[in-house]
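Can't attach files on this board, so I'm pasting raw text. These are the components:
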Amino acid sequence: MACPLPDLSEGSAGATAAADAPSAPAITTLDQTPLATAFVIHEVVYPEDGRGWNQRLEELGFLPGERVLVLTRGRPGGDPLAVRVGHSTFALRRAEAACVRVRPWPIAAVKP
Amino acid sequence: MTATAVVHLHPPGRLLALVGNPNCGKTALFNLLTGSRQKVANYAGVTVERKEGRLITHAGHAVRVLDLPGTYSLHPRSPDERVTCEVLHGQALGERRPDLVVCVVDATNLRRNLRLVLAVRRLGMPCVVALNMTDLAERRGITIDADQLSGALGVPVVRTVGVAREGDAGLRRILDDPTLWLRGAAHETQHEPASLLADHDAVRSILQRLGLDELIPHEASDRIDRVVLHPVVGPLLLAAFLFLMFQAVFAWAEVPMQWIETATAWLAAGAGTLLPAGWASSLLVDGVIAGAGSVLAFLPQIVILFFFILLLEDSGYLPRAAFLLDRLMGAVGLSGRSFIPLLSSHACAVPGIMAARTIADPRDRLVTIMIAPLMTCSARLPVYTLLIGAFIPQRVIGGWIELQGLVLLFLYAAGILGAMLVAWVLKRFTAAGRHVRPLMMELPQYHLPSPRNIALGLWQRVVIFVRRVGTIILSLTVLMWFLASFPTPPPGVTGAPILHSFAGMLGQALAVLFEPIGFNWQISVALVPGLAAREVVVSALGTVYSLSASGIDAAQSLAPLIAHDWGLATGLSLLAWFVFAPQCLSTLAVVRRETGGWTWPLVMAAYLFALAYLAAFIVYRSASLLGGN
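---
Top answer:
Structure tokens for the assembled complex are below.
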């Protein structure tokens, strides 16, 4: 249970990720993404000081294939972040957002 | 109480449990189903609020309803979520496994909510899905075919609107279907390894089949958030709101507080004349009536404060406030979630400490409880008023700033800064404090608050406050009355009778301890009954100075007396003492109950005493040096 889930994103992402080749996109972490720009969750990784954050994030809906975007960042310091995932909005600390590895949303330049 | 010795007697009748994600409108639906037929208590052994009610089905049958704490999954992370999980598995202490589970889902967010339905379905219990907030969903152009969804999930689905009258009619009707309560037989408990990802895929394929697999932006909420979470405008709005709230707490509460005080005084006078003078009359008048009156006098403030907090909670603004303050709280090792308990503590630390239950992280919760008493509670106000009136000159500085008001503001700020300092020290010097604390807090969509839910919530909190705190304060005041009244002075002795009592003896012994911070024996004696409730210090000082007057009158005639009798340094030192003053006993009693032992209340009393002594010492010595003797 404790280990990170294998990368099943290709299988689960279904229609949303189909447009993109699996190897090409640059993978970054959610805390590094620009505001209001959609990304696809690639995987949720185990954080350095651990303690089950990745599982919690997945339970909240941070699952491979889901669309995420950062709505706002707190000032100063860019912490915390308001993140939209699916239909929900969550406040995440930067360290929490760093556990979410994302790749660009397949249809370029979708800026909702 | 040992777990093995408990015999559980369950009331008869069918038991239904409401389960759902946080913010799915579950509590509103519960309120609609049960009306005012609710019982609020705690689950056995944990400080998680347990809400039970009774609903009448369409055909007129009574069903017990349990409103389980909201959860995102059946893998519990907080004490609240653990309760939900244990009740559903039939493992909760003193709880029967429900006969039927109603999964409440937010129709505007099936994507997340349906995963929990799949997990609950796997438990093999009879299950119904209440498709809640269908009104909002339709307004947003989401039309959900309940029959199709029911077919896809394999459980009955009914539409509900938690905030509309008759919004629960469908659910009440379906509960009369006898086969509903037996359905569990069809779903045997599946022990397949539950995979979130598999559930997520299942939900997505259901949504695709129903034509709902689209992401619709939350335009209204997003537009509000652009202002509310704005880095500059957001904090200003929050500050303005808090300012308004505090104005309301103190301004609006003044008149009803006076009514309560007048009523108490009238009752005490009436009882005093009716009863023959003696210890029985004194117990009733000085102990019971004065004690109960001192609790009830804070009720208006608490009602107003909770009204604002419920308004913030119901509208969805509260997590935004926590978001804005998270950075600040994070700097001292707490999270934005500690904001509510600390805010409530400005009325009284007791409800504030009880509100700390919402903090999932045990360490954050403990730190919040420990610093909550440093917030200036309203019981300190009468003392501040007396001392400021006596020692701070009425002067206007800079044309419009009133010096006395400025000092009061400074005292509030000193409490908050003190709390931040303590939290920072705990962060800096404990291993657990240096970890990054998880936040992961949902920012739900905004809703117009429902007057019905606010009224119900307010009523419940008032009842809890009066019942729990009333009993604690009342018994402590009676105890203090005993200590201050016995033994009675021998006949022919002049001076205040309190001097000869246990409290008087204790106070005079304490005077040695308090002498270095400038307190005379009168103050030391008055501090003893002040342990029961802080504002009692004012009337106790009056008693010691042999004034036979009630609290209000004492404050008026006492001010010139102490201004004459004490030096400025003593007055300022007593003010500093009260910023950090060791707790009233009811706060310590609540801390004992919330932390489950005597360790933390004792630690709290000790550290607050040390802090107060230190602050008063520094103030007294510097003021004396500067010639304010």
